[in-house]
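QA checklist item 7 of 12: single-chain prediction sanity check.
[x] sequence parsed
[x] length recorded as 156
[x] structure emitted
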Amino acid sequence: MTLDARPTRRSALLIIAAASLPSSATAADRPLVTVHKDPSCGCCSGWAEHLRKAEFPVKTIDTAGLSAVKERLGVPRELYACHTAEVAGYAIEGHVPAVALIRLLAEKPDAIGLAVPGMPIGSPGMEGGEPETYDVILFGKSGQRVYMRCKEDREV
């Protein structure tokens, strides 16, 4: 008896369907996010916890020298927020939601990083009160643009 190694239409569809399912390996392979924060900042710890819940490994570094970190990573002053992170060669400034990090890492744009300037109410780490809609800004050598609009931890 000879076996036919050619895939059937049904087996090809099953392979495609299986490949499109979410994989726990995707989350397990997420890169380390290193968060530089002031030791007394609670919202920064809340943001780090948001990333952990999204299955990012997170390392926090308490520092009083945040300005030097921001300058080293190339964060424009007008985008400064309360903490700065590094992930896969990108700078992440402020309360950027995990959904934006996931998109950034999938698309890999030619940019320095993402920022959520200020401390929008309802953004990850800033829960409480009436949530605001806020912009996630992509910034780099060619300027800045709105990368996505979010409310709480979701794109709108």
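[x] summary fact logged: Helices lie at 9-20, 24-28, 42-53, 66-73, 98-107.
[ ] second reviewer sign-off
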